[in-house]
């Protein structure tokens, strides 16, 4: 198993089901639940579309992480996007989040550990933030398969506080690695 590091750029949280989340000085991750005080916190799924389909589903989307490199890519394409605006709880730098295998553990700050469960499936609310943003976070690979670039989702294995500037240590799972799929 390999490990490498990145950094937390920003943390964001909101207690209501609004799309963007305001930046905070810190957030507290709660084991098995998610971000303390966030609308998506819970043992079972909290995303409204998922609740409508089956409210008993386990919440594999407790924490949403987006790489700040995506924000830079979007700004270069003419969008004005900053940390928290795409609904993420943790904005990172220096880690290829989309390239991580399922089951990767992200050690955040002093104690917190988030296990990556899958890719965020971007939704039409992105176009409400800025027209054309949804197609900007979707792409196609060489085989024509859909590539979702709007970050990854995870569950909290170990709680703790996370702040901007905290180191993120990446712990890859044992091989064989499984690609991330949408959750």
TrEMBL record:
Enumerate the GO terms in the molecular function aspect.
Answer: catalytic activity; molybdenum ion binding; pyridoxal phosphate binding
- Show the PROSITE patterns listed in the entry: MOSC
Taken from the record, one Pfam family name reads MOSC
What domain of life does the UniProt record list for this protein's source? Bacteria
Coiled-coil zones: none
Residues in domain MOSC? 21-171
Concerning PANTHER family, the annotation shows:
METAL-SULFUR CLUSTER BIOSYNTHESIS PROTEINS YUAD-RELATED (PTHR36930), MOSC DOMAIN-CONTAINING PROTEIN (PTHR36930:SF1)
| Name of this chain's protein | MOSC domain-containing protein
What is the scientific name of the source organism? Dictyobacter aurantiacus
- Source lineage: Bacteria, Bacillati, Chloroflexota, Ktedonobacteria, Ktedonobacterales
